[in-house]
Amino acid sequence: MNILLVFAHPEPRSLNGALRDVAVAELAGQGHAVRVSDLYAQGWKSVVDRADFPALAPGARLMPAPASGQAFAGGGLTEDVKAEQAKLLWADVLILQFPLWWYTMPAILKGWVDRVFAYGFAYGVGEHSERHWGDRFGEGTLAGKRAMLIVTAGGWGEHYAPRGVNGPIDDLLFPINHGILYYPGYEVLPAFVAYRADRLDDGGFAHVAERLRARMRTLATTPPIPYRRQNGGDYLIPSLHLRPGLDAPGTTGFALHVNGTAHEPG
Q: How far apart are alpha carbons 214 and 30 in whole angstroms?
């Protein structure tokens, strides 16, 4: 398989850097083709602004979504963005790797998403009608590909359990897994999470590294999170409300949009 790993940590000697090297070595050893986009090393521009749309008239008001769509349709996106989009089309699997900072991804990785997931490429595609509300949430440009997260967290695993003070890790990662990866069509695998990132000794790292190698060996066979497809019949269109009776009694929040039993993060 072709695998793109987008790496977002400023220190190559960090735990994240070591885990990236473990993942890449394991994937290459399995015969996969691997590319790494190291955002800090590339000096990735993380904000959307007028410089992203060279064809925009100087006096025109910047509306990012329409400007993005026009630039994509006309081949006018900046070269750094087009290069990352080409990598996404090449890759069978996308891995986003980052430390959990303030309950989400670092700003540089969010900026990668903001700029690379352009209108017409990752969203704003497909028919919008009374029967079908765009190609998204299980459909879209990147459908048929797989994606997953490799995440490090400073807290204990217990802190991210269903009754943990930080909230369930699946809920914290839902906006990324569902709203960024599943939205344009990826099948999203359960995240690989390493806890107590700043407190691992050699033995702890060896254990985490072996777990990661095991996950890399099963990229093609791990069942994806069973998110509900937007246009698969579970949602009313155009309101996009879940049809009555499809959820288990007492289910609320993000869990409504997962069809089946809870999964275990790796």
A: 11
Secondary structure of the chain as H, E, C letters: CEEEEEECCCCCCCHHHHHHHHHHHHHHHCCCEEEEEEHHHHCCCCCCCHHHCCCCCCCCCCCHHHHHHHHHHCCCCCHHHHHHHHHHHHCCEEEEEEECECCECCHHHHHHHHHHCCECCCECCCCECCCCECCCCCCCCCCCCEEEEEEECCCCHHHHCCCCCCCCHHHHHHHHHHHHHHCCCCEECCCEEECCCCCCCHHHHHHHHHHHHHHHHCCCCCCCCCECCHHHHHECCCCCCECCCCCCCCCCHHHHHECCCCCCCC
C-alpha distance from residue 151 to each of 49, 74, 100 (Å): 28, 36, 6
* Cβ 194 vs Cβ 153: under 8 Å: yes
pTM: 0.94
Q: CA torsion, points 153, 158, 163, 164, in degrees to nearest 10?
A: -50
Domain boundaries, the chain: 2-257
Q: How far apart are CA 205 and CA 6, in angstroms?
A: 21
Is the dihedral angle over the CA atoms 120, 121, 126, 128 positive or is it negative?
negative
The tokens for 55 are: 């064809």
The fold of the 2-257 domain, in CATH, is Rossmann fold (3.40.50)
Which residue stretches of the chain have pLDDT < 70?
Answer: 261-266
Q: What pLDDT digit, counting tens, does each position of 108-150 carry?
A: 999 999 999 999 999 999 988 888 999 999 999 999 999 999 9
